[in-house]
Amino acid sequence: MDSLFLNPEAFADARAEFKDKGFCHLKGFLSKKVCLALREEAIDLFNRGEAFLSKENHNVYQHEAGGNLQIHEVQNRLVQSRKSIIDFQRIPKESPLKKIYLDDKLLDFISKVVEKTVYHSGCAYNAGYYNVFQEGDGLGWHFDKAEFGVSVLLQKAESGGVFLFHHNTISTEDPWGFKIVERILDGKQESVTSSQSPERAIIAEDGETGPVIIADDLDVGSLVIFNGKSSVHRVTEVVGNKRELM
């Protein structure tokens, strides 16, 4: 991890990718040894009942359907998100996860990539946490309330658990993005891997591109920084007995 912070080329590549695609993928951010320690800790905490199940039906915009903000029928379409969370307070003080999260070099690196000053969270629960996706779990299409997210993959599922992302779904000019959101929910926007040519994703009559699978070579130890506030995204349903851990 420290070698990344000392590598100006890696930083420049990460910032350029984030600006161009709305996310950046840093392969091998954590070593296999560190990932193993984090994985063992997460599974142990999960097995000891320290996780809580987060399950909700929500719309893409994550506000109340049919409320004062109702403009378009797509706001009434519900998707389901389900995962288990081991929050920051339940993680031991000596955990390597807390050491990584509280590392000022990581904070500085992220700030430079997103070109905004970021701070450690003051919340005792959601500062940093483990996500555990079991069979049938996943995240429905949604926009985040936070401006960007940071995730590290610790264990891949047997199948599923794929991170899909549509860059700049909404903008100042189109603050709701109803047309593209409706296409995505209807399954009319083909998903492609981030390494494929953008032309492969263009299927709409107006040339709008579909979601991409973030980093087809996403593997254990990969770090992803992504802009989830203006870019609709999801994690597909996990299939099989092997949990996906982040």
Describe this structure in words.
- The protein has helices spanning 2-5, 8-21, 32-47, 96-101, 104-114, 178-185, and strands at residues 23-26, 52-58, 79-86, 130-133, 139-142, 149-152, 163-165, 192-193, 212-213, 223-226, 233-235, 244-245.
- With 246 residues, the chain is of the alpha+beta class.
- The strands form three sheets. Strands 5-11-7-9-8 form a five-stranded mixed β-sheet, with no helix packed on it. The chain has a four-stranded antiparallel β-sheet with strand order 2-3-4-12, covered by helices on one side. A three-stranded antiparallel β-sheet has the order 1-10-6.
- The radius of gyration is 18 Å and the shape is globular.
- The relative contact order is 0.21.
Labels describing this entry:
single chain; alpha+beta; five-stranded mixed β-sheet; four-stranded antiparallel β-sheet; globular
Strand content is 15-25%
Number of helices: 6
Task: Please tell me what the overall shape is.
Answer: globular
Structural class by SSE content:
alpha+beta
Helix content: 10-25%
Mean pLDDT across all amino acids: 86
Q: Largest sheet at a glance?
A: 5 strands, mixed
Main-sheet strand order equals 5-11-7-9-8
Rg over CA atoms: 18 Å
| SSE sequence, one letter per element | HHEHEEHHEEEEHEEEEE
Number of strands: 12
